[in-house]
Design brief:
365 residues; alpha+beta; Helicase, Ruva Protein, domain 3; Lysozyme; 15 helices
């Protein structure tokens, strides 16, 4: 058996004092921690609604009531709809035009190729956010499906693409967006002047201060990004409280999207689009890159060298869409419901992004 050497009383006392000193320092004055490196933002986390007030981009030079075109517009509102002239002048004295909006109109997302466009919306964050939105609004989505026949995935895809489930409803006052485009965007001035008129009527009907509502640079509003004319015709009260609040009330936003699709001919249970395989060159006579028409039977498509990659009913009418993928053209057989989505937004890229989100949540149809 080996014996350890004996320690002297002096060394024992010294060790004890050192132990007490170290323990005292540890308990009273912890060392300053090293500042941790901030982790990269987790892009896989779903979008979540925010309670913070959104940033508002105001016009750099408000006060456009004295412009001739604005004076003419005020005259129209007074004569056609009985608005108070002084009130309108005060409103346009506080409103203005925003040059950034004109820049944004010149560079729309829809001008991108499909392979770039899809990366903006088919993200893990958007996919996960949609699943959570459906989980959080189960009853409102069920009511919408029962009343309008539009599935929860379709409604959720639209709200997800438009505003990231309410997180990004827009940072411009609608009065400024529509004024900019009505008076400083000649190419579509007539359309936006009409929407500005509809916006004033909307605010009067809803008891809303015209300077308050926020929206996109194009004047689209709330979670579903309705233009004022669409709001007046199709916004719906989803929870029976007598209001149509598409900005902060998910039930109203859900019902409004469902009503929009129902009124535009949504076919419950029918497919939207499926991937296609093409051969030969005969299909080139019917393929579209912008607005495929659902006018051909599947047998007619087959005769032109177009075959669906997934099972679909032979009784459906269909069209053929070509999109620009990273490795060359992608082909999709599109149906009536694809056209209905394009009535919400005229871009086939938009409709395909919605279709792809739905396919992720439900699986290929």
């Amino acid at each position: 058996m080996n014996h350890l050497p004996m320690k002297s009383p002096h060394s024992i006392l010294l060790a004890s004092l050192l132990y007490v000193l170290l323990a005292s320092c540890s308990s009273q004055q912890p060392p300053t921690p090293i500042e941790p490196v901030a982790p990269e933002k987790d892009k896989s986390k779903p979008e979540a609604a925010t309670t913070q007030e959104p940033e508002v981009l105001l016009p750099p030079n408000p006060g456009i009531a004295g412009r001739p075109m604005v004076k003419d517009f005020i005259d129209d509102l007074v004569e056609k709809h009985g608005f108070n002239r002084q009130s309108l002048v005060r409103t346009f004295d506080e409103a203005g035009t925003i040059p950034k909006i004109l820049d944004a109109m010149a560079k729309p997302y829809e001008a991108k190729p499909w392979y770039a466009y899809r990366k903006l919306f088919l993200t893990e964050k958007r996919i996960g956010g949609g699943q959570r939105f459906m989980d959080d609004n189960t009853e409102a989505l069920r009511r919408a499906k029962s009343r309008y026949g539009v599935p929860k995935e379709m409604i959720t895809a639209i709200i997800g693409i438009e505003s990231a489930y309410g997180v990004k409803p827009g940072k411009y006052r609608v009065i400024d967006s529509l004024s900019t485009l009505a008076f400083d965007y000649p190419r579509r001035a007539a359309f936006f002047r009409s929407e500005l008129e509809q916006f004033f009527l909307l605010c009067r009907e809803e008891g809303e201060d015209v300077l308050n509502p926020l929206g996109s640079y194009a004047g689209a509003m709330g979670m579903p990004q309705f233009m004022p004319s669409s709001f007046r015709k199709l916004a719906a009260d989803g929870d029976g409280d007598g209001r149509r609040d598409i900005w902060k009330n998910p039930s109203d936003a859900i019902a409004s999207v469902a009503n929009y699709f129902d009124k535009n001919g949504w076919e419950s249970g029918a497919p939207i689009a499926v991937p296609a395989r093409v051969q030969g060159s005969a299909f080139q006579g019917i393929v579209s890159t912008k607005s495929p028409k659902a006018t051909h039977t599947l047998k007619e498509l087959e005769a032109l060298g177009v075959m669906p990659r997934e099972p679909v009913s032979g009784a459906l009418k269909a069209g053929l869409l070509e999109l620009q993928g990273e490795d060359g053209p992608e082909y999709w057989i599109t149906f009536h419901n694809f056209t209905v989505i394009m009535r919400y937004n005229h871009s086939p890229l938009y409709a395909m992004a919605a279709n792809e989100l739905i396919r992720i949540w439900t699986g290929p149809r």
